[in-house]
Amino acid sequence: MSAAFDSKLFLANVSQRPGVYRMIGADGEVLYVGKARNLKNRLTSYFVGKAQAAKTMAMVSQVANVEVTVTASETEALLLEYNLIKRHRPRFNVTLRDDKSFPYLYVTTQDEYPRISFYRGSRKLPGRFFGPYPNARATRETILLLQKLFLLRPCSDTFFANRSRPCLQHQIKRCSGPCVRLISPQEYRQDVNDAIKVLEGKGAELIDDLAQRMEHASQELEFEKAARLRDQINGIKAIHSTQSVTRNATEDIDAVALVSHGSDHCVSIVFVRGGRNLGSNNFFPKPGIAEAGELLSGFLTQYYLGREAPGEILINEQIEDADTLEQALSERMERSVKIRSNVRGVRARWLEMARTNAELGVKMRRATEATGVEQLQAMQEVFNLPNPPARIECFDISHTMGERTVASCVVFGPEGPLKSDYRRFNIEGIAPGDDYGAMRQALSRRYARIKKGEAPTPDVLLIDGGPGQLAQASEVLKEYDIDNVLIAGVAKGADRRPGQERLFLPGHELPTLLPPDSPALHLIQRVRDEAHRFAITGHRQRRAKARTQSVLETVPGLGPRKRRELLRQFGGLQGVSRAGIDDLAKVHGISRKLAQSIYDTLHANG
């Protein structure tokens, strides 16, 4: 504990009301954020009485100040704690590395011919959202299933509006062809409503309805329609047969289980929506100073206050503040949310499924970490380093015939990729195709920041390339007076197959060749491939943006809204380029003078 902090004086003046406290370090860093029903009692436990756990004592020893905010209720304290943790990311709190939103299935019910699509983001658009799904694969599999059963369109509105004949999806019986009116809006709406019933878990009710419609179609001698309804019934029954665990349930439920082995913790969530098990997802939270019960509580707070909560959350062990979290989630969702730990029957099986997934998650995590340690130790031996590298950076360059060059920098640590530290660099001012110049520019920009202390210095710097790229890296590090960084160029073999990589090191004329089964080579390949993927993705995004928008962005007086309207009306940049001045002037918001300017810009070289 910092000598500047007088805990006795501080505790003598602390309120006994509920609230939130922040442990502050000497440099102003927020070390820990916590909530308490009674602030005085909770804070006293840190500084007075029995010895704390080692992590807690380490945190308390760094405290230079404690800031307190009194709240009107425990629920308000919980919400404030969540917001402060999200803002400051204190290193002694429970933290979640994966903050990406989950995917949803989106149905544009407001359209004449609604679209079914994959969606991730804010759910403020008109229409219906279903989910969340545990991953993109589960979402797309559901979309494909509904396409097969109900022939709903997945295409974008622009594509849909500009069709003159059915696309391939219609030919392979995945769409009923609404783009060219091969189905009436009323019939299509019926298919959409049937699909929504499946998503809502009302399969049994839908089967009865479909059976009645099939019988009526047979009586009316509409045998093709009756056959389609029969296939839909069989498809829905097949779904139910594979969902035997959940077939009697209609609720939206998450089963959440925490399993800990030593310092490794895994939280697994099984998602049940409308009676269907949509799969599971694993999280590996960093516990900070939290014990097992506090870890699960901290996870639930951070996870569900940032997302849509289902009506029921099952947990494999009780938590202290379940009532407070229930109230906060119910107020936020404007409906009842229950947190339950003692459950039976089908719910107990869901919870056991989550626990089993968490067990497997921990085992796989420990196995992966063991492999990672072995790889880092092997790299230490290969490069003759004093210690296993704690930080590895790798650079790669991507372009198409010199166009829109992008450099990537990926970072790996003992736990694997550190994606929050990844960086991309848009390369400008070099000759097209000058990979050496591109590498030099990217390295200079990166290591200028490292020299200023804006990022940690790596132990190993990998460069995708041979002696030329390696020379550029060596010169840049020498220019910025950065030493104690091992540099290696990673070049592909003669036939570019994995396992034949050549490693070029400064001061060595001949390349180093590692055996194909070398753990160090496997790590180098993984890091290099990730840098390559990250560079290609950035290049493709930059190239696509340039080809679809940059020309229109140069037109004076043509803002984002008018550009979007032009692209929507003509189905893309190619359609705009083909349009005449009169056609352009017919678009809402486009004057004839602006239409002339657009036409002149698009045909400047023609």
Explain the layout of strands and helices.
Layout: H1 7-12, E1 19-25, E2 30-36, H2 39-47, H3 54-60, E3 63-70, H4 74-88, E4 104-107, E5 116-119, E6 128-130, H5 136-150, H6 157-161, H7 168-171, H8 185-199, H9 203-219, H10 223-242, E7 253-261, E8 264-273, E9 276-283, H11 292-304, E10 312-315, H12 322-333, E11 338-340, H13 345-383, E12 392-400, E13 403-413, E14 416-417, E15 423-426, H14 435-451, E16 460-464, H15 467-479, E17 486-491, E18 502-504, E19 512-513, H16 519-553, H17 560-570, H18 573-578, H19 581-585, H20 592-602
Parallel strand pairs: 7-10, 10-11, 12-16, 16-17
Antiparallel strand pairs: 1-2, 1-3, 4-5, 4-6, 7-8, 8-9, 12-13, 13-14, 13-15, 17-18, 18-19
Helix pairs in contact: 4-12, 9-10, 13-16, 14-15
Short description:
The chain has 606 residues and is α+β, with helices and mostly antiparallel strands. The protein has 20 helices and 19 strands. The longest helix has 39 residues, at 345-383.
Low-confidence stretches: 242-248
Report, as a whole number of angstroms, the end-to-end distance.
74 Å
- Amount of helix: 40-55%
Count of helical stretches? 20
Cα-based radius of gyration, to the nearest Å: 30 Å
Record field, number of beta strands? 19
Subunit structure: Interacts with UvrB in an incision complex.
GO molecular function: hydrolase activity
Subcellular location: Cytoplasm
Pfam family, one: UvrC_RNaseH_dom
